[in-house]
Design a protein that fits this description.
about 900 residues, alpha/beta, six-stranded parallel sheet, five-stranded parallel sheet, about 40% helix, about 10% strand, binds thiamine diphosphate, binds magnesium ion
Length: about 900
């Protein structure tokens, strides 16, 4: 209870007796016996009080006692020298960038706090990909990237020019601000910096590696996922939200290192408390192995002298806000305000100089302590480990910001500050050089420094990080593998989700590819009719199935298996998405192509975990995202929070996301087949988002005829050509289930209104838009050359009449192609809040049912002068439409 000064020891003699007895047991029978006795005591206490007699936290000192520390290999002086050069070059790089162009940004202070934590990893632990193994995956705290570049510079992987092009990526092959595989595809393996996403992706990556192993796809034993995160970052729900999965699945291939510099951007993380103690509770409560690394080795002699526990008490009672202030002051201040709180403590340091007091290090800055913590973490079996390492933000920067609240955004250092920093880290550059333009410093390739750096890395497989993409392409089946779907449902009604399940089932029968498929669900498999796969493929569980499933008697029982293929994530879209991203980047991180299909409730996709989708795009993840239950009026009973009418707009802004809103099974089959070809044969870094729905209807066979296949992929094709020769003719466009309303509207127009209607199935407004934009841009930049025509225009130009498009998404979706529609264009969509009712009622409410399509077509024809406005009025009346009702998006 040392962290609660209000608890008084009312009988110290009795306390001493108990403690003495404990010491005796440990000395005589060992710690396991002592643990047994304490547990017995604890249970007895619980029986009497209903409470547990302890807290989740331990003392505010290192978890690993000095006598249990592993000895650190390597050349201490050399490593310190190299680290100092990295500190210097990283700082100079940001300073130079901002001298040239203030506003480019960059961070200096964070790397200074994490440098030692990373260097111990680089010199002793992080394994690079080799022929034998793909090595470790490290999620580096993103805004400390200058330190990684500074290291790559010393490694002669980057040049001075590269460093000068930090954050300048447009005209030059510069260095990206943060780890972005998209921008530096041979370097960064995983993106970080949208805080919280690194940690959750690291957990699911470690889990995916176990999955690959347990399924017998590849041996991933001995490989580790490291995630470095900030203490401020741990406030993001994603950062700590999946901790229990890591413990439950015994991810001993996972190590978190939280860089506890006690500060975030604006100020202290927990000024009035202790972030390390708080995190200790969180992680321990979630079942992790916790290693606190608070004090450097020069505290050890003081702690050894602390027989009354006063120093421990003091360490515990000081809050983080004060610890931060201590580091922003000096040794005299620490003597007075830390040790001076108790005369005994003041005596303890009486013979130390202020400098010696000042140099009492925090654990994260002590290479010996960090090595021993990592060593213990790597050795630990059966559980993930977190290292809570206490550091100083802006370490060594002195007046330039060390421990100051402004340090996070410090991008500049003046000449005097740089000189101080140079001297502090003994960097061989002169005052004159600094005054002129602070120079980088790099020992050349035959220096002892370079040789040392290289030898340490050679022992760990080579330079790091390094992204390698040498996975063999997959042997994908021909389109006829999906013949069952291509032939249509033959009178049977089914949803497009069901058609998708048929496509997936067909793929799971293909020998060459079936093992590579990774079906992922977040507790909605039954919603999508996928429960049949439970038994067929098994649900992955590292424990197998330890119980008799309640439905064991049934054919399709809930089967969990160690080699199960389905990732059933439970209700965590963020987790499922992270699994999808891990599987979708196996081609780079594991050297093997995997084909993930994450099938989810469309509303809880892009808008729920949109930032993860963006990160996956940066990661160059490949795979399929299936937004089931899509369409604002198609999922009708679930109401406002469930009915997705916008995911296609959200998907459309991700540059390498290829999105489709198909209606029929054959469209889906053609799209998925092409996706497989592009992603796994051509190995393009795109991913597919396909919406499916839960409305049952008949699916026709793939129409014969030119251009259908191409049109499906490009985004539109003529589905129904009117044979009529009337004066009034319209072109009706539709997607998803609303295409069915459009087809019905075409019938009504011909039968009741004397208008011929051609109907187009638009599988992708967003792909059509992309093609149109490219054509536009070409035309803009090639004046005088023969003008190119967009696909939309080419498709529509020989078909007479105004154009009306209707979808189950907001109007912004069909509006995407407005620029290339060669005639009057009207769009119908589902702008507004969803609500529950029948599909008919909802479509009427949002004005996307067949009657509104008819009225929109007639109205557009009237505007063009082809028919009389009276005809529109009559239709409005005949269909009982209230022209005075408020706009649906306002109610
Ligand atoms: C989701 C998100 N929100 C905000 C930011 C902006 N940001 C970058 S670093 C930072 C502070 C980080 O503090 P901490 O995690 O403690 O890391 P430190 O720099 O102290 O090591 C913030 C707010 C971000 N990158 N991502
Ligand atoms: Mg911090």
């Amino acid at each position: 209870m040392a962290d609660d000064p209000t608890r008084k020891d009312i009988d110290p003699e009795e306390t001493e007796e108990w403690l003495g007895a404990l010491e005796a047991v440990i000395g005589h029978d060992g710690v396991e016996r002592a643990r047994y006795l304490i547990e017995q005591l604890s249970e007895r206490f619980h029986r009497h009080s209903g409470e547990i007699p302890y807290r989740m936290t331990t003392e505010y000192i290192n978890t690993i006692p000095p006598e249990q520390e592993a000895k650190r290999p390597g050349d201490y002086d050399m490593e310190r020298k190299l680290k100092s050069l990295m500190r210097w070059n990283a700082a100079v790089m940001v300073v130079r960038a901002n001298r040239l162009h203030s506003g480019l940004g960059g961070h200096i202070g964070s790397y200074q706090s994490v440098a030692n934590l990373w260097e111990i990893g680089f010199n002793n632990f992080f394994r690079a990909p080799t022929e034998e193994s793909r090595g470790d995956i490290v999620f580096f705290q993103g805004h400390s990237s200058p330190g990684i570049y500074a290291r790559a510079f010393l490694e002669h992987r980057l040049s001075e020019e590269d460093l000068d092009n930090f954050r300048r990526e447009v005209e030059t092959p510069g260095l990206s601000s943060y780890p972005h595989p998209w921008l530096m595809p041979d370097f960064w393996c995983v993106p970080t910096v949208s805080m919280g996403l690194g940690p959750i992706m690291a957990i699911y990556q470690a889990r995916f590696m176990k999955y690959l192993h347990n399924r017998g796809i590849m041996d991933t034993s001995g490989r580790t996922v490291w995630a470095f995160l900030g203490d401020g970052e741990t406030d993001e729900p994603e950062a700590l939200g999946a901790l229990s999965l890591a413990a439950r699945e015994k991810l001993d291939n996972l190590i978190f290192v939280v860089n506890c510099n006690l500060q975030r951007l604006d100020g202290p993380v927990r000024g009035n408390g202790k972030i390390i103690q708080e995190l200790e509770t969180e992680f321990r409560g979630s079942g992790w192995h916790v290693i606190k690394l608070i004090l450097g080795r020069n505290w050890d002699p003081l702690l050894a002298k602390d027989d009354k526990g006063l120093l421990r008490k003091r360490l515990m009672e000081v809050v983080d806000g004060d610890y931060q202030t201590f580091k922003a002051k000096d040794g005299a201040y620490v003597r007075k305000h830390f040790f001076g709180a108790y005369p005994e403590l003041a005596d303890m340091v009486a013979n130390m100089t202020d400098e010696e007091i000042w140099s009492l290090k925090r654990g994260g800055h002590d290479p010996f302590k960090v090595y021993s913590a990592y060593h213990a973490a790597v050795q630990h079996d059966g559980r993930p480990t977190v290292i809570l390492a206490k550091t100083v933000k802006g370490y060594g920067m002195g007046e330039a910001g060390e421990g100051q609240n402004i340090i996070h955004q410090q991008k500049k250092m003046d000449v005097e500050q740089l000189k101080h920093f140079r001297t502090r880290f003994r960097v061989p550059v002169t005052d004159e050089e600094i005054e002129d333009q602070p120079p980088y410093h790099r020992p050349d390739k035959d220096s002892e420094e370079f040789k040392y750096l290289k030898s340490r890395r050679d022992a760990l497989g080579g330079w790091f990080p390094r992204r390698v993409t040498d996975a063999a392409p997959l042997d994908i089946p021909g389109l006829d593998a999906f013949q069952l779907v291509l032939d249509g449902s033959k009178g049977r009604e089914m949803s497009s989700t069901m058609a998708f399940v048929r496509v997936l089932s067909a793929l799971l029968k293909e020998k060459a590819i079936k093992d590579r498929i990774v079906p992922i669900v977040a507790d909605e498999a039954r919603t999508f009719g996928m429960e049949g796969l439970f038994r067929q493929l098994g649900i992955y569980s590292p424990l197998g199935q330890l119980y008799e499933p309640v439905d064991a008697e049934q054919l399709l029982y809930y089967k969990e298996a160690k080699n199960g293929q389905i990732l059933q994530e439970g209700i965590t879209e963020a987790g499922a998405f992270s699994s999808w991203a891990a599987a979708g980047t196996a081609y780079a991180n594991h050297g093997i192509n995997m084909v993930p299909f994450f099938v989810f409730y469309s509303m809880f996709g892009f808008q729920r975990v949109g930032d993860l989708a963006w990160a996956a795009a940066d990661l160059q993840a490949r795979g399929f995202l299936i937004g089931g239950t899509s369409g604002r009026t198609t999922l009708n009973g679930e109401g406002l929070q469930h009915e997705d009418g916008q995911s296609h707009v959200q998907a459309s802004v991700i540059p390498n996301c290829v999105a489709y809103d198909p209606t029929f099974g054959y469209e889906l089959a053609v799209i998925i087949h092409e996706g497989l070809r592009r992603m796994y044969v051509e190995q393009e870094s795109v991913f597919y988002y396909i919406t499916t729905n839960n409305q049952n209807y008949e699916h026709p066979a793939l129409p014969e005829g030119d251009g259908v296949h191409e049109g499906i992929l490009k985004g539109m094709y003529l589905l129904r050509k009117s044979a009529g020769r009337k004066k009034a003719r319209v072109q009706l466009l539709g997607s998803g289930t609303i295409l069915l309303e459009v087809l019905a509207a075409a019938e009504l127009l011909e039968a009741e209104h004397g208008v011929d209607a051609d109907v187009w199935s638009v599988t992708s407004f967003s792909e059509l838009r992309r093609e149109g934009l490219a054509v536009d841009r070409w035309n803009l930049l090639h004046p005088g050359k023969e003008r190119r025509t967009a696909f939309v225009e080419r498709q529509l130009r020989d078909h007479r009449g105004p154009v009306v498009a209707s979808t189950d998404f907001v109007r912004a979706f069909p509006d995407m192609i407005r620029a290339w529609v060669p005639r009057r264009y009207r769009v119908l969509g589902t702008d507004g809040f969803g609500r529950s009712d029948t599909r008919e009622a909802l479509r009427r409410f949002f004005e996307v049912d067949r009657y509104h399509v008819v009225v929109a077509a007639l109205s557009t024809l009237a505007e063009e002068g082809t028919i009389d406005a009276k005809k529109v009025r009559e239709a409005i009346e005949a269909y009982d439409i209230d022209p005075e009702r408020p706009d649906p998006w306002t109610v």
